[in-house]
Specification:
- Helix content is 14%, strand content 29%.
- By secondary structure, it is α+β, with helices and mostly antiparallel strands.
- The strands form 4 sheets. It has a 6-stranded antiparallel β-sheet, with no helix packed on it.
- A hairpin with a 2-residue loop joins strand 5 and strand 6.
- The longest helix has 17 residues.
- The radius of gyration is 21 Å and the shape is globular.
- InterPro entries: Osmotin/thaumatin-like_sf (IPR037176), Thaumatin (IPR001938).
- This is Osmotin-like protein.
C-alpha cells in the first residue's frame, strides 16, 4: 500500500480554514428581516466612539434579510426602518426615518417619528452580554421586534407588532403631503414640544419625567417598548451569549 500525505502548504491551509470556522461559531450576528409587504430601508447609527456598520443603511425588499457582525468586543447603537424612499431628480429621500437624503446614512441620525431598536453589545472576553430594547419614545413608523436566538438568561422577544398607523390619534398623525395617508405616529413631545412632554429642563429626571396620555397610547398597544424618556430601565433586556439578534419589521 502506498501512503500519501498532504503537502505542508495544504496542511496549513486546512488548519487555517478550521480555525476560521471555529472562530465563526462564536460570532454574534445582527440580522435585519423585512416581512412587510413593501420595501424597508434599514438605517444603522452607532453611538459615539463606535464604528458604522454596513455603511449605515441599505434597501431591504419584502421577505428578504441581511446579516452582518458587529465588532467582536463592544458595539452600541440603534437600528430603525425608513419607509417611502425614492430617487427623484438625482436626490434620495424617505417619507419617514430619513437621514439627510442619503441611502447610506454613514453615522447620521434619522428624522422622527421612527420606531427604534437599541443595542449595547459586549461580545467575547469575560463579558458576553447583549442588551437590547425597542423604543417608541420618538414615535412610530413601522412595526418592529427584536428576537434573540440561542441566548441564556432573560432573552424575550420585545417590540411592537401592532400597526399603530391604523389607530394613531388624529393629533399625533403624520400624513404624507396635504391630507394624505398616515405615514407615522408622532410622540407627544414632537406633537406639542413642551418641556413636560419632552422631559426637558425641570422635567429631565426619573422623578419629574412621567408617562402622559400620549405615551400611554403607545404603551397600551406595545407594553414591551419604551415610550417616554425615563421609562423603566428594565425594558432593556440583558441576554447572555446570543448567537443572533434579529430585527424584524412587520413580525
Amino acid at each position: 500500500m502506498v501512503k500519501t500525505s498532504l503537502p505542508l502548504t495544504a496542511f496549513f491551509f486546512l488548519l487555517l480554514i478550521s480555525s476560521s470556522l471555529a472562530a465563526d461559531t462564536g460570532r454574534l450576528f445582527l440580522t435585519v428581516v423585512n416581512h412587510c409587504p413593501f420595501t424597508v430601508w434599514p438605517a444603522i447609527q452607532p453611538n459615539a466612539g463606535h464604528p458604522v456598520l454596513e455603511k449605515g443603511g441599505f434597501a431591504l425588499p419584502t421577505n428578504t434579510h441581511r446579516s452582518f457582525s458587529p465588532p467582536t468586543t463592544h458595539w452600541s447603537g440603534r437600528i430603525w426602518g425608513r419607509t417611502g424612499c425614492s430617487h427623484y431628480n438625482g436626490k434620495f429621500s424617505c417619507v419617514t426615518g430619513d437621514c439627510g437624503n442619503r441611502l447610506e446614512c454613514n453615522g447620521l441620525g434619522g428624522a422622527t417619528p421612527a420606531s427604534l431598536a437599541q443595542f449595547d453589545l459586549h461580545h467575547g472576553g469575560h463579558r458576553d452580554l447583549s442588551s437590547y430594547g425597542v423604543s417608541l419614545v420618538d414615535g412610530f413608523n413601522v412595526p418592529m421586534t427584536v428576537t434573540p436566538h440561542e441566548g441564556r438568561g432573560v432573552c424575550p422577544v420585545v417590540g411592537c407588532r401592532e400597526d399603530l398607523l391604523r389607530t394613531c390619534p388624529a393629533h399625533l398623525q403624520l400624513r404624507s403631503g396635504h391630507g394624505g395617508h398616515v405615514v407615522a405616529c408622532k410622540s407627544g413631545c414632537e406633537a406639542f414640544r413642551t418641556d413636560e412632554l419632552c422631559c426637558r429642563n425641570h422635567y429631565n429626571s426619573p422623578q419629574t419625567c412621567r408617562a402622559s396620555s400620549h405615551s400611554l397610547f403607545f404603551k397600551h398597544a406595545c407594553p414591551s417598548t419604551m415610550t417616554f424618556a425615563h421609562d423603566s430601565p428594565s425594558l432593556m433586556h440583558d441576554c447572555s451569549s446570543p448567537r443572533e439578534l434579529k430585527v424584524i419589521f412587520c413580525h
